[in-house]
Amino acid sequence: xxxxxxxxxxxxxxxxxxxxxxxxxxxxxxxxxxxxxxxxxxxxxxxxxxxxxxxxxxxxxxxxxxxxxxxxxxxxxxxxxxxxxxxxxxxxxxxxxxxxxxxxxxxxxxxxxxxxxxxxxxxxxxxxxxxxxxxxxxxxxxxxxxxxxxxxxxxxxxxxxxxxxxxxxxxxxxxxxxxxxxxxxxxxxxxxxxxxxxxxxxxxxxxxxxxxxxxxxxxxxxxxxxxxxxxxxxxxxxxxxxxxxxxxxxxxxxxxxxxxxxxxxxxxxxxxxxxxxxxxxxxxxxxxxxxxxxxxxxxxxxxxxxxxxxxxxxxxxxxxxxxxxxxxxxxxxxxxxxxxxxxxxxxxxxxxxxxxxxxxxxxxxxxxxxxxxxxxxxxxxxxxxxxxxx
Length: 390
Fold this sequence. Notes:
Elements: H1 3-12, E1 22-23, E2 29-32, E3 35-39, H2 52-65, H3 73-77, H4 80-93, E4 97-101, H5 104-115, E5 121-125, H6 130-139, E6 142-146, H7 151-160, E7 166-171, H8 183-192, E8 196-200, H9 215-219, E9 226-231, E10 241-245, H10 247-256, H11 258-261, H12 268-283, H13 285-301, E11 316-322, H14 324-336, E12 339-340, E13 343-344, E14 354-359, H15 366-389
Parallel strand pairs: 3-12, 5-6, 5-7, 7-8, 8-9
Antiparallel strand pairs: 1-2, 2-3, 4-10, 9-10, 11-14, 13-14
Helix pairs in contact: 2-12, 4-12, 5-6, 7-8, 13-15
């Protein structure tokens, strides 16, 4: 492969990505490549990644348990801290049992193949996250993709399918649009057509629902057919992920999920940090209220701009720009003003929908939102002026 030529093609298409070096603690203002930047680029939605109570819990656990996990969970790596974290998570989401994973990607790419294989069928929303897509592919089941949120098409697909092993997979909160999947209606479809439902709530857990208990709690949704995945490195501010469901389903995953069986366990100190964070997530309702207020403040300030701002109830606010080049230009203009709001381009989002993905944190203050609003207004004028000149 000619790597240089392939990289040049990515650059020409506006698709080449760049890593930035962040120093110091996570927060609304970051040291990025040596420059202070007001950041709207993190998934630290509740502002917990640098919370002193969680840091102290982690340090104390490191002294008790050391740093590494030592081995896989099914050999000698399942520490008491892992067990306690799984029990705490099960109570938090009000499901019988949970299973810890090192990341959401490892959870989904392992769980889906453990639930369905050759001869089975997976039904996937077209805007699902890459880890759900890759898990479906790895399962070797037949994959059926339905248009985003189109339950009529999903039901028709399920009705036509005679496969005994079926699973519907969906984001709970969609990572690039911030909208919430219609989970109760999806549960009803799965019960009607004898399918399982896996909800990836990476961007909803901690953010939506009573006490931040996620999308299922937001709807009050329950079903024996349901498996629920939440990540612990976003709103929870730590690392890892979990899958929750009925006890028999989770035990099956213990026995058959390759990304659980064949990897070293999460460091026990992080499992202790997760428990400390869950207490704060449940306690600090003001953090979720602040996220809602930030969204309203931003949308109110940007009503007259030429870009679409879909209304969301989550911490994710997309600003739809259109072309890759235009989205990159807006991102660069903001960067020059000391603001980091990443441009998201295909294949992460569909062609022609390149955007800024603005993410709020409870650590952001009103002045931060106002500064972003002012900068976006300036950038819009620059872009309009440039378009008129051409």
